[in-house]
Amino acid sequence: MSTKEDDSLFLKLKQRPDLSSEEAITLAFDNFDLDRDKKWSWEEFERFVRCLFANKGAPYFVLKAHQEKIFDLIRDREQKCIFRHQFGLFWNACVSKIIKPVSALVIVDVQNDFIDGTLAIRNCPARQEGHDVVPVINQMIESVPFDVIVFTYDWHPADHISFYENLCMRCLDVTSKVKAEDAKALDTVIFDGERKIEQKLWPCHCVQNSWGSELHPELKVTPNALHVYKGLNSNIDSYSAFWDNNKLSETNLRQELLNRNVTDVYVCGLAYDVCVGSTALHAEEHGFRTILVDDASRGVDEGGIQRMKDTLKKRGVFIVDSRMIRRMVAGEDRRPELGMKTIERFWLHDGNNRKEVEENHSS
Questions:
Q1: pLDDT digits over 202-217, tens only?
Q2: CA triplet 34, 40, 43: central angle to 5 degrees?
Q3: Rounded distance, CA 156 to CA 198, Å?
Q4: Would strands 226-230 and 148-154 be described as parallel, antiparallel, or unpaired?
Q5: Is 6 a catalytic residue?
Q6: 257, 279 Cβ separation under 8 angstroms
Q7: Peptide bond between residue 330 and the one before it cis (omega within 30 degrees of 0)
Q8: Which of the following is catalytic: 7, 33, 109, 154?
Q9: Under 8 Å CB-to-CB from 79, ≥6 apart: which residues?
Q10: DSSP 271-294
Q11: pLDDT single digits (tens) 216-247
Q12: CB-side neighbour CA atoms (13 Å) of 102
């Protein structure tokens, strides 16, 4: 049987309403048990890996060390092979999420003020056009079968700490290199208080219930989407859609995604080096496989965008073009880097699964 035929089996299995059923697991296991001895040898396992990590039936290169890591995770310690019950645990915890991910598109702050208003991206140092993200995002919404779509909003009170115009409302700390009389928009200052706050000063933007806080009128908004509001506290900024900048208060986004069993989070919007990047970093931190959609994001500063890209890659966030998204969301393009994240989290963070595997190893 060819790799493409093996891949076809995966595509058929994921159409089943219950991917974790005994029948589905048995079909998958038997497909790769070529000698019908009710266990997998290393060679049969290798064939499975070639099918698991593939795109259109073409296998990705998988490091031998990664293959050995997976094999060692699920194999029987005594006979050094994989039995059906061990594969079943691995299937439910990992493989089912790889071939049938639950994907959320998080569209960050595509609001009027960032496109045509007081903080239009085009007027920032990088001179990028914020409106460019709208048709790309619309195309993804229309053509990619996301399970969840989220729109986030900067949603500031009029006296918000981030507004340059409000600088006179608060005292700067003596450690602030920029003094109040010298400060200008886009400078960074340090505010005095029980907890010192480092803050970049932005023009007044996205004030609650204003025209500037509304989503751009050309952006397609789906009826069942989630809407997440951030930056509501006057005294602290919130770049990420998950947490404020000091990680003192959390939005409802993480819980909403967990409630919907989301495995993969795709992030895009405005601005790349600020709210988009911060949201992607927290999504990764919370254990979601995280992908930033490069051509559906625009930023403030070229240097800041590059630094954010470097940080994202270092933290394990994947950066891809929107044209690649549909097959990834559909579970047809199964990349080993993302798959290994699922496997590592299953082994390192899910104590129940790990304990069960270890008990099977010792039995």
A1: 999 999 999 999 999 9
A2: 75
A3: 18
A4: parallel
A5: no
A6: no
A7: no
A8: 109
A9: 39
A10: -IIIIIHHHHHHHHHTT-EEEEEE
A11: 999 999 999 999 999 999 999 999 999 999 99
A12: 13
**pLDDT score, position 104:** 98
Catalytic residue among 51, 204, 275, 333: 275
Q: CA-to-CA distance for 82 and 74, rounded, in angstroms?
A: 7
Query: Which one of 33, 124, 204, 230 is the catalytic residue?
Result: 230
- Residue type for position 88: G
Three-class secondary structure of residue 269 per DSSP: strand
Cα(161)–Cα(17) distance, rounded to whole angstroms?
49
Catalytic residue list contains 109: yes
Tokens of 4: 């493409």
Q: Which pLDDT score is estimated for 270?
A: 98
| pLDDT, tens digit (0-9, with 9 covering 90-100), for 118-150 | 999 999 999 999 999 999 999 999 999 999 999
Confidence tier at 1 by pLDDT (50, 70, 90): very low
What does the alpha-carbon distance between residue 18 and residue 25 come to, in Å, rounded to a whole number?
A: 10
Rounded distance between C-alpha atoms, residue 268 and residue 249, angstroms: 23
Of the pLDDT bands very low, low, confident and very high (cuts 50, 70, 90), residue 352 is low
Structure tokens at 144: 């990619």
275 is catalytic: yes
How far is Cα of residue 221 from the mean position of the Cα atoms in its chain? 20
Q: Distance between CA 353 and CA 92 in Å, rounded? A: 10
